[in-house]
Amino acid sequence: MLKEYRHHLLLHLIIFMWGFTGILGKIIHLDALLIVWHRLWIAAVFLALYILYKKRWSAPKGKQLLLTILVGLVVATHWITFYTAIQMSTASLGILCLSTTTLHVTWLEPLIMKRKFSWLEGFLGLIVIGGIYFVAHDFTGAEKTAVIVGLISALCAGIFSVANGKLAQETDTASLSLTELSTGFIALSIYFFTKGKLDFNLFQMSAADFYWLLFLGILCTSFAFLATIDIVKKLGAFTVSLSINLEPIYTIILAIFLLKEHKLLNSSFYWGATLIILVVLANGIIKHRQKQNAITKHGNAIQ
Prior knowledge:
mainly alpha
């Protein structure tokens, strides 16, 4: 029985790890830029070793390489703003803002993938805005800024998710990800160099921080990415995408038990969080039904 459900169990273990990445923004005693810099090089090294082992390097070329480099910069920006939002407020707030990524995809896909705009998804997006209002209407100062930064992070996540969907049609996904991670690492390294900070001081940290960074870079990033590719093949894209929407729930639960964040957040936050999560889940279910209806109609037309 366990063998039958191993891919489901692995999927939820990965989502749990992704939920834990927000917690690490509080546990690791480094600023957001350093966390992302270390995450990028650790994940890139692990992915490079995997590609060498599999002998499957397929570098993007020409225009696609340029687009991949731009997406790599967006990925780095996404992570930097994500951890900045968390360090300015709470892990719960950071991951909740990130859960709006799905709604950004709603208007980005018509622009990038030339898909017809969905007014229903646009309406769901307005409901999410209402949820954000519930979450943030009592916030002041740094907390409101954290919400803005968190929403920018979600926008970046939406951009690279849609862009990668297009780029992955022509390039091996592992090679694509390695190029993006390397781009982000090089860009941040150049930034540290211009500030006179590109030296061994970047590696000055506690042993606990280093081990958490290895966990973040290897397991939460590279391993999770490679395992998810296999899981999508076994379970289907809908099951995976719908299950990933549980990530904010895992993070909020972990934040309550590990960081005691329930003492910092009021009931309005949880009402807003519930509304946003329900909309995101509903969006996944609606998309699945639309896809099934399209398949049915197509099948009938062939017959």
